[in-house]
Specification:
Number of domains of chain A: 3
CATH class of the largest domain in chain A: Mainly Alpha
CATH topology of the largest domain in chain A: Butyryl-Coa Dehydrogenase, subunit A, domain 1
Strand content of chain A: 5-15%
Largest interface: A-B, 105 and 106 residues
Number of strands of chain A: 14
CATH architecture of the largest domain in chain A: Orthogonal Bundle
Oligomer: homodimer
Chain lengths: ~600, ~600
């Protein structure tokens, strides 16, 4: 059972993430609170009725590979057809390509719902979305006419083919070859970890493949991007000619069993026909275009699975009767939710999930402004904010997501370890989110390297200023003022950490890399505190008119708990940033050898 | 591949956990460093050659249930027979029962090796050990003569039957019935989550079952303990008559697939024959006898699986070539162990695993002293220490164990999520350790309730004094003195937290319960810091003579890293203890309702 948190999504979008501001952007005039409400209600209904019911069965049955073909779990096909008929696939894409033309802010809210209801299913449109962006931004008009409408409608799906056995995070090591032949290229090589790299949901699949032409420069500067359809056109224009791309196997994964992860062999019979996107050797740059959205969505996913696990744990805790209340040991047994330690476990999850949700939506809102704002200064500020937040939304949401699903499982006791209960699936599924679309280590390198050392802290300072300014608008209620004080102290700590890292960078480039993860997490604790306090600040105002609304009381209570239990991590990460770098870099790799 | 960390086990036992003191106890005169070395070498060999190779295959195949019978994975039977032929089963038990009569200190070191090599296999002797203790301590001489020797040799195994569907952590809710009939009792009811509750490794299984006689008082004071053998004797004394206990199913678990977890139905055909252990209504007390050892071993297990996962991650990191060194981007690709963030991930694991290991051995050593020391004062001090440490060894080792196996998986990137790699198995297997033998929440209630509020902090103060005294003997080396200063600050924080919790307890018994887990973890960080600094202090001395030994240099480096990255958690937990209790208790359970 899954109930989409539509009220909280609506609250986060309208009260915290400036839906009004997004609706004021050119091209988004149709956006309104009412429209969002309708969309979320419909998405919630579809998620609860169609996607959630096949989540557990999809895990048990899994995607299968037989006779060279991939078969998705029972119910997947029907659900997919309903999904694309509902027009869900094209939500954020151009109306003239058949999309709905809605902002990322709306799309991100809906993405949470799909990923929570059925992460393995939701991965298919999620990957397709990335492919659409790459094609939409860099392909020729002719290529767009051929592929884009079908991908936007969901009639065909797109895949991202980056990884090879020797090239995981290190794309400079890509070896797949592309040899020009007439108007097209012949592609050969092996790609691994291709999510939905093959499936039976659509008639065709559009692979976006990174490969290297014979005379390309070495490393990341010699990678080109190709469109390689699973089926090519015959002379009558029908897409029925099998291209030379073969599904070699699908992976046996710990989680997201319903989603096939394929090993694809290109060119085992002469070469797969591929069409160059844009210019040669610019493939990695094209990929970066869609990286922000893909990483953002993966962060949303990490928090979505945590929400789903929380819902299950909260229901279990309310239903499971075990033990007496500690203050009334002579009384009847009580539901375990009455035990303080179980309340604590739920509260830890809740106080993280809600600010991570609004942070993701606020970031999506900034993505919309960075793309469309008419004021150049606002656009630039929004872009700087997005650059800093993407590794946080991706890295921090997925890392906390791991902890959260573990706490949700823990509430079930021994039942949590039994697969039938369902908590174990979330625990297994979630484990991939801090890995794919760039590991947490990669996100840490991004925020400490490209987004701090490279520009000497300019973007970071802009973002801190923006948040500091926002704090000034918060309620003057005592409880909120305490939170603001704590956030202002954190800003000082963050600034001193930034100064320290810039100093380290001047000494030895290894040192910032060694403290990248605590730096990312320091940001994470801080910005979630900001979002948490902001929600509480709004709630204080709302309660003046409606003092009974438990939703707003919850916002204040969970924020207070956040500042009691999460915010003190600031000092912990600051200490790591200031003292651990030299120790790490000083270790010789031989010191880790096993006996 | 698994290599037992024999040098570190030997170091921890002799230099940190007072092997000499244990060897001075009556009955342990044969114990020596040389003997321990021989035992560890042999155990390590057996683990690497016999148990480790069937760990992954046992996970894939799993225990199976067919025609009412349980079949263990291929190779399990042969390994078990070699295990008992080697005399490993009886290590800590009386020589006159066929055991080796060795101290817990030695047994704990060997247990780590079994659990690391093959957790699912190691669970069988582990549970048997608990059953042996219960029978050995409370059964009649006749019962001992009948069952004990066979259990000590491992010819038969014992099981612990506590949990029922409605009674997990709450044993007062046990409903299984025991009705006296002549010399024995007829047992009926259902028991769940019985590890190795049925299997094909031995000819007979000795179930220890908690049940309630018809006129027993309600709750925990009305529970009795029974021996219920799977097979009873026929008139010729052969154990061939099937008792009325039926295996109804085995659980489909997330991990430890090789170990069958049975649902047992007692008395579906009139009643299973059971023999009362000791007196009626004292069953729970008898169970508590073995609880300390069982919880201790589970803590060892949590750290053992983390060690295994660390070994795999360290090897992977040394072998996997990806990316350039950040300080030499024009150079060749390097093994990922050269990347600072990967070094950091390994170091985090290492700096926790080693002190958790020595803490478990130090605690085992105190268990030996509490059992055998001739000086009553020493005995009492040792017992107080054991009481405080058991929930820490259990709760903290398993909670950090979860984080550690997750970091080990993370180092593998996408490969970590693929089952063939092996890292995923440790991640799945480990997840049960903070649940069984009492969840972390139960351990927290133990340390904050029974071990703090109940005695007003007497045992806690004794333990703190003992550690404070120990610190005075540490090296005066600058690096070590910094650690000692940090530990003395932590002592002040711990004492103020204790005072605060005792004040809370006087206000409302829910409040200490709400902060039990941060209190447990505060202890955990502190005592691991103590062990870490102690190891470094010893290492400083050793390096005077042998300045090249990387083993000792490692001790200093990992301790410094511990004090940089783990020790700052002290403030974090202290903050939670001081500020979060009221917030948790103030939450109404309705506030957690999903929409």
């Amino acid at each position: 059972m899954y109930i989409a948190p539509t009220r909280d999504l609506l609250f986060a979008a309208t009260e915290l993430a400036d839906l009004q501001g997004v609706a004021a952007l050119p091209g988004h005039e149709e956006v309104s609170e009412e429209l969002l409400q309708v969309i979320l209600d419909e998405a919630g209904k579809f998620a609860s009725e169609v996607l959630a019911p096949i989540n557990h069965s999809g895990d048990i049955q899994g995607a299968r590979f037989s006779d060279g073909k991939v078969i998705t779990p029972d119910g997947w096909k029907e659900a997919y057809h309903q999904f694309i008929e509902g027009g869900w696939n094209g939500l954020p894409f151009d109306i003239d390509r058949g999309g709905q033309g809605l902002p990322w802010l709306v799309s991100a809210a809906v993405q949470e719902i799909w990923c929570a209801a059925n992460m393995a299913f939701g991965l298919c449109p999620l990957l397709n979305q990335g492919a659409i962006e790459a094609v939409g931004s860099h392909a020729s008009e002719e290529q767009k006419a051929t592929y884009l409408n079908k991908m936007v409608s969901g009639k065909w799906t797109g895949t991202m083919n980056l990884t090879e056995p020797q090239a995981g995070s290190d794309l400079g090591a890509v070896k797949t070859k592309a040899v020009k032949k007439g108007e097209s290229y012949l592609i050969s090589g092996q790609k691994i970890f291709i999510s939905y790299g093959d499936h039976d949901l659509t008639e065709n699949i559009v692979h976006l493949v990174l490969a290297r032409t014979p005379d390309a420069p070495e490393g990341v500067k010699g990678i080109s991007l190709f469109i390689v359809p699973k089926f090519l056109q015959d002379e009558n224009g029908n897409w029925v000619v099998r291209n030379d791309v073969e599904t070699l196997s699908i992976e046996h994964k710990m989680g997201i069993h319903g989603s096939p992860t394929a090993v694809l062999g290109y060119g085992n019979n002469g070469g797969a026909v591929g069409y160059l996107v844009g210019e040669e050797n610019r493939g990695l740059m094209y990929m970066f275009t869609m990286m922000n959205a893909a990483r953002h969505t993966t962060g949303v996913q990490g928090n979505a699975v945590a929400e789903r696990a929380y819902q299950q744990a909260a229901r279990f805790a309310a239903d499971r009767v075990q033990g007496k209340a500690i203050e009334n040991l002579m009384g009847d047994r009580v539901a375990i939710i009455e035990h303080p330690d179980v309340k604590r476990l739920l509260l830890v999850q809740k106080c993280r999930i809600e600010p991570l949700r609004s942070l993701a939506l606020f970031t999506a809102s900034a993505m919309d402004k960075a793309a469309r704002h008419l004021d150049e200064q606002e656009k630039k500020r929004a872009q700087a904010f997005v650059e800093i937040m993407i590794p946080i939304v991706k890295g921090y949401s997925t890392e906390l997501g791991l902890e959260n699903v573990s706490l949700a499982l823990q509430i079930h006791g021994g039942m949590g370890f039994i697969e039938e209960t369902g908590a174990a699936q979330y625990y297994r599924d979630q484990r991939i989110t801090p890995i794919y679309e760039g590991t947490t280590g990669i996100q840490a390198m991004d925020i400490v390297g490209r987004k701090l050392v490279r520009d000497g802290g300019v973007m970071a300072a802009m973002t801190i200023d923006m948040i500091a300014e926002d704090l000034s608008s918060f309620s003057k209620d005592d409880r909120i003022e305490k939170m603001v004080t704590s956030l202002r102290v954190a800003i000082v700590e963050l600034q001193s950490s930034i100064a320290h890292i810039l100093k380290l960078a001047a000494e030895n480039p290894q040192l910032p890399a060694a403290v990248g993860e605590p730096y990312l997490k320091l940001w994470g604790v801080f910005v979630c505190g900001w979002q948490s306090a902001k929600a509480a600040s709004v709630a204080v105002g709302k309660l003046v008119d409606d003092s009974d609304d438990i939703f707003y009381q919850n916002k204040i209570d969970t924020a207070r708990f956040y500042f009691s239990t999460e915010m003190p991590k600031v000092n912990y990460y600051v200490s790591m940033i200031h003292t651990s770098g030299e120790l790490i870099v000083g270790m010789d790799s031989a010191q880790f050898a096993v006996n």
